[in-house]
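Lecture notes, unit on protein representations.

Consider one protein chain, 754 amino acids long.
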Amino acid sequence: MAKVFLRIACAAAFAFSAAVAQDGPGAAEFAQKALPALPVEKSYTFQKVLSERVEPLRRDPAARPAATEIAIPPQGWSLVIRSDSGPLLRHAAVEFRERIADGMQVNLKLEAPGTLDGWAAMNRSVVAGTRDQMPGCGQALKGPKDYQIQVEGERIAVCGFDERGAMYGLYNLEARFSLREAPFLSRTLDTTRHSLYRTRMTLSGLGWMNWPDRFLATLVRYGFDAIHDSIYRNPNNAPGVGPHWDKMKEHPPGAMAGLVRRAAKYGIGVYVPILWRYTPTPENEEGLRKLVRDIVTEFPDIRGYVLLTEGFYYERWFGAGGQGDQDLRKWLREWARAVAIVTEECRKINPAIEVLPWEYNVDFRPHQAENKRYGTAQLPRDSIPLLTFENGKAFELDGERGWLKDYAINQVGPAEVTQAQIAEARKLGFRGVYTKADTFASWQYGTFPYLPFPYQWYERYKALEKWGVDGVLESWSYGFKPNFVAELRAWYSWSDAPPLDDLLRAIARRDFGAGNEDAVLSAWKYFSNAIRLVPDTGPNWGTNNAVASPFFLTQPEPRMMTVNHSWSDPALWARTTWVNPYWPYVPSRLILWPDFTNKVNAAERYVRPFSLPVFSKYLGLAADEMEKGLRHYRKAALAAPAAKRQNAYRETLLAEQLQRMMRSEQALLEFEDLRFRLRQNTTSKTAALDRLEAILREEIERTEASFETARRDSRLGYEWEQDYIYTPATIHEKLLLLKRTLAEDLPALRNGAQ
């Protein structure tokens, strides 16, 4: 079966392929060469890989140092740290030494003298320490995580403001070697780098509470210093509240304490939620105080607590904009009182603990700016507001106005409400302002490990810096997986980063080979233009499951038990199980389910507040821009040296899958609109059926290609809230449905049998 799919996928005439052949390889030509060269991966392969090893450094055996560069030889140099260095720097030194040996074939002798006072005379050495340990070095360093790297003759000095700074300096050396693909540095390198953020936090990209040591070691190399864990569950397993907690797993005994301890080895702090339903009664307040005391006492080394309104709220939970007749200002005042209780109890035990109130679920549309500002003003000044950066940002397409409904990157941000909140927090003198801002992946295409839109991501990095954000939560349930955009982000989380095009050119050369840089940068520019055109920003099927979402022409037979004629309420049963019995492979909100009573056009309902023609137009324009970039990407991947080719093929297939998401979403919306109008007798039957047939044939070709791509990249389709949203098996089921619809349902409609 797989060989049949491969043959069909390679031969398929994808949209635009023939038209652009003169400008670069089309999808069919690329598939013929790329697919046979890539191994098929079982589901969860990426988890095994990331659990067992840190991403290897890139080494080009043919690389030779320029006259302006210093080269560390395979033997004869030392790595020097002071003998009384703390566990963080000692651990980082061991990790650095092992990585350089494995990746760069450089064997550094580890030395630990009692003093580094003579560091300036330590030749043929990498000397790493703090500014207090290295007199005269690092005098411009200002705060934690800052570091200076200085090359002088045959000595490389890595001086941190503190041990974390020294650690990040060592790992920046690794990054420089990886970009150069050799242990070479400029002879005149002297950089002082200030950390732009107090905290950079992420979630696991492997699964809930899934933080193996090698994954933690990878995180810190991408500049993270914190993780957010125990999502929707109290860290001590105490009962919680909210729309998710009763579905969450419990922590195994000792798992949370073990995670805090293991993360500390890498300089990574742990943030966790506190879940509570607050009602202003003495009993409820004392219960909250006791919960906080119990948690903080049991886990004294947890760095901070995230009070997210999906599990920490006043009286009742509601989704954004779903407050009904609830007085939002009263709700915000009472919620802030609960935040104050948590803050008071934390500070009694440890004043350094950070309490991060996050009112995500309070309506974030632009007209709510004053309510959001008001809510921020109610919070205790010893807390640190955690604001959602882009959600609610207004944008306009052809005169139609919309706003970001969920985490997205088509708009840079901050949203109008967030601008008001940041200004209020600064005016009132809070301990800082943190924000949830995606920086390499997003729920807009949340089934991808990262989104290759570097120029658009860079605009967000600049916006975060401009608005003076102190800390960032940089992912949600799609989490972190190593990728070049996250690498870019790490560079721009400190000052004195290289110019954007210089850095991107170095990444392109390393990943696609010398001579391909211009093509790759052109592709990234087109991709970045494409995402700016994407209108879909919701949390549902279009940008997450489009390549695997079924096309229903008629109501199908159920694929699991139904309760249509039982004593159960079918609508209630569907809500509580999240499952549609006619397509039970994903939560029901991740498919476009038609209204088979034909009273509501499901396509029009999905695209609101935009009209269907405008929404579809911009999806098509985005896909067209992706194709322009893919011409360059495919060409670069096919020209890549043999050692880089597999990785280049995978990167290109990932971008093609993104484009297929756009095309499949556009196709399904048109398909459902035509199905509805056909049943309403508001369109020509012959013309509608002809167009439905054409859409099905085009989608079959796309689905065959999506199947083959998903088989070769186990990262695709995965995010840990739902596990796999799609797998090759579910794409296969979609393909069978498409073919059956084309062969049976459509002819029956033509013949008037349905």
